[in-house]
Design goal:
Structural class: mainly alpha
Strand order of the largest sheet: 1-2
Main location: membrane
Strand content: under 5%
Helix content: 55-70%
GO cellular component, one term: membrane
Subcellular location: Membrane
InterPro entries: T4SS_VirB3/TrbD/AvhB
Transmembrane segments: 21-37, 43-63
Largest sheet: 2 strands, antiparallel
Number of helices: 6
Oligomer: single chain
Order of helices and strands: HEEHHHHH
Length: 95
C-alpha cells in the first residue's frame, strides 16, 4: 500500500477529542446515560457528570496502550465459541 500523506490521512482511525471513536462512545455512554437516568436526583446526577474526566483519562490510557483494543474485543467476542456444557453445569468449561 502506498505511504503518501493522502492515503495515510484517509486510512487513519477517526478521533474525537483525541480518542478513537469507539473509546469516545464508551466514555460518553458511561457518563451521559447515567446522568440522564438520575436527572431527578441532583447530587447523584452531578456525581456521574463529574466522573466524565476520570473515564476520559482511563480511556486515554487504554487508547495509548492499544488503539485498536475495541476491535480486538469485538473479534474475540464474535469468534469465541459458546461453552459446550453451559446448560448442564452453568459453567464455562470446555473439558
Amino acid at each position: 500500500m502506498e505511504r503518501t500523506p493522502v492515503i495515510l490521512g484517509l486510512t487513519r482511525q477517526a478521533k474525537l477529542w483525541g480518542l478513537p471513536m469507539p473509546y469516545m462512545l464508551a466514555v460518553a455512554s458511561v457518563t451521559v446515560l447515567p446522568f440522564m437516568w438520575t436527572s431527578q436526583h441532583l447530587i447523584l446526577s452531578l456525581t456521574f457528570l463529574a466522573l466524565g474526566p476520570v473515564w476520559y483519562g482511563l480511556a486515554r490510557i487504554a487508547a495509548a496502550a492499544n488503539p485498536n483494543g475495541t476491535q480486538v474485543l469485538r473479534v474475540i467476542l464474535q469468534k469465541t465459541p459458546p461453552a459446550l456444557n453451559r446448560s448442564r453445569r452453568k459453567g464455562r468449561r470446555y473439558v
